[in-house]
Design a protein that fits this description.
Blueprint lengths: L2 H16 L8 H18 L3 H10 L11 H14 L4 H13 L12 H12 L3 H15 L16 H7 L3 H7 L11 H26 L3
The chain binds adenosine-5'-diphosphate (ADP) and nickel (II) ion.
């Protein structure tokens, strides 16, 4: 099948699956990650078809969204079969979506396309959109926006932090402000710099307003 149609069909497939998603991995997260992926992939001369397909499918096997990761992986594979994606490309796409999550940060990323999609996914967690997602997540969990008695604990692992049910502002220190340095590609890094700076400015303003000072 023509790659353009495969991408269009996959968009439909993912959109239907994630329409009702409420954990910050809704369809619009995917749509933004796809756009970022195109921008970075073009700059980095990565394979566009592989990168876009992996971006579209990257959250379908996330254990926050699915109970059975293996079954979800199997379903994605069946989808790729149905679209007649060649075996070699299937292996590459499945490899990317299995290795890009933050938890597996120390996993060796096997290809440029994996690096591109991971950068795009991480970029969507920072900057103005990242801030919005952070507060939306905190609200959904019933967490506070900020607790000045709670010192930011920069070295806490993501697992420890989840258990602790920290505030939205603490999440900046636990994750968001670390993402810029974790960019794989130079295009990703350039995009991250602006978003990072924006978050720092945001925090400065936030603390100023919190204290009620001029
Ligand atoms: P990923 O897309 O890397 O799997 P997560 O599921 O950890 O990300 O997070 C989804 C979105 O919710 C991201 O924008 C992330 O920054 C945000 N988020 C995750 N955990 C928290 C938290 N404890 N407090 C606030 N926002 C969070
Ligand atoms: Ni994602």
């Amino acid at each position: 099948m023509n790659q353009k149609f495969v991408i269009q069909n996959t968009e439909e497939f993912v959109r239907t699956k994630l329409e009702q998603e409420g954990t910050g991995h809704d369809w619009w997260h995917i749509a933004r990650v796809v756009e970022l992926t195109k921008t970075i992939a073009e700059d980095e001369e990565a394979n566009l078809f592989i990168s876009i397909m992996a971006a579209l499918l990257h959250d379908l096997i996330d254990d926050k969204l699915v109970e059975d990761k293996e079954a979800a992986l199997h379903e994605v594979k069946s989808w790729l079969d149905s679209q007649q994606v060649v075996e070699h490309d299937q292996v590459h796409i499945l490899d990317i979506i299995q290795t890009i999550s933050f938890k597996e940060a120390h996993n060796h990323l096997t290809s440029l396309e994996a690096q591109v999609v991971q950068d795009a996914d991480r970029l969507d967690a920072i900057g103005a959109v990242g801030i919005a997602r952070c507060f939306a997540f905190a609200g959904a969990k019933g967490n506070l926006i900020h607790d000045p008695d709670e010192e930011p604990e920069i070295n806490m692992s993501q697992e420890q932090y989840r258990e602790k049910n920290g505030t939205a502002i603490n999440h900046f220190y636990e994750k968001l402000l670390k993402l810029k340095e974790l960019m794989n590609t130079s295009t990703g890094y350039q995009l991250a710099e602006e978003r990072h700076q924006f978050m720092e400015q945001y925090l400065e303003q936030f603390y100023k307003e919190w204290k009620g000072i001029r």
